[in-house]
Amino acid sequence: MNIGQAAKASGVSAKMIRYYEQTGLIPAADRKDSGYRDYSATDVHMLRFIRRARDLGFSVAEIGDLLNLWRDETRQSAEVKRLAQGHIDALERKIADMQDMAHTLTMLVNACQGDHRPHCPILQRLETDQDDEDLSIRPRSGAVNRSLQ
After folding, report:
1. What is the domain range of residue 13?
2. Which molecular function term from Gene Ontology is one that the record holds (predicted)?
């Protein structure tokens, strides 16, 4: 089948299939006499494997490791589990980081009056290296107090 058919059957775009070939994640497809790529059912199966791994957030490098383990019939499942657990640990760190960001932004939004005044704790926090939870509204350094003009 051609690259468009392989893309449709696997759920991986033709552009990504070319990229995976270019980077060596998958072997280059056989070519027809016309020069067009010719994908087999095995190739499509491998592309579906890659798509499912990408859907779970594995990086291209991790997918390469998973493919190597998948192809190695002498592998130990402990290796696969170790790789998957490492990915879970990374995801949990990212989730915790995102929850911290959401918490900080929530506090900043709650501290912002959202009125006609120029003072904004959201912008204030972005301009400083302040890590404490002091979210009081103060004029930023160098700000012009328009009420004195």
Report:
1. 3-75
2. copper ion binding
